[in-house]
Amino acid sequence: MNTKENKVNYQPLLIFGGAFSLFFAFWVYLIASKNPFIKSFDTVVYNAIRNNNPVERQLAFYWTQLGNTLTITVFTVVLVLFLVYQRNYIHAVFASLTMIAANACNSIIKNIIQRQRPRMDKAVHADGFSFPSGHSVGSMTLALVLIALIVVLVKKKPVKTWLIVFCVFFTLSIGFTRMYLHVHWPSDVLGGWCEGLAFSSLASWLFFKALDKKNKLNP
């Protein structure tokens, strides 16, 4: 990583964050009110991805562990400590507070909505309520936090591109495994992604704005 930040046009992030926040609020309303559209949405997606191949299910089971709370928390702590070590204090505050805020909000909404999980395979264990998907929120938020850090700290374009592609693949694949293993409704995963997008977009806007202000004060 290079400590000299790249310039970023961050203003659209405020619009994106606001749009995802509104959509997430609307999605929460649909879930809470048990709107028939949600059941139709879940049924269509489940029918499209249904597959009982034991090898693929086992691979999905192993991969989904990368998005659990423990793994995401450990990785975030290591990331924040590394940023502090590199004296990238604004970056460290951004990463830690964004992850804490998104996951705390997710926990609150879970306990308010109290949506039950789908009927699960006994070989797959999952605790707590279903909406929003914690794996989806955590992986999406972490992926976009990493993308924001990659954009400002990595200068080599090929490296930057491949890292960003992997971050996108990571969060989408984690969400897919939650549906594939039938531990979450598809609407849980979509809701989790939107929540993560809302928090990370707004937080990234504040992050880039803080860096811009810092660079202007210390050209």
TrEMBL record:
Record PANTHER family:
AT30094P (PTHR14969:SF13), SPHINGOSINE-1-PHOSPHATE PHOSPHOHYDROLASE (PTHR14969)
Domain called Phosphatidic acid phosphatase type 2/haloperoxidase: residue spans: 92-204
- Give the InterPro entries listed for this entry: PAP2/HPO, PAP2/HPO_sf
Keywords in alphabetical order: Membrane, Transmembrane, Transmembrane helix
Q: Which SMART domains match?
A: acidPPc
Q: What is this protein called?
A: Membrane-associated phospholipid phosphatase
Q: Which Gene3D superfamilies match?
A: Phosphatidic acid phosphatase type 2/haloperoxidase
Q: What does the record give as the organism's lineage?
A: Bacteria, Bacillati, Bacillota, Bacilli, Lactobacillales
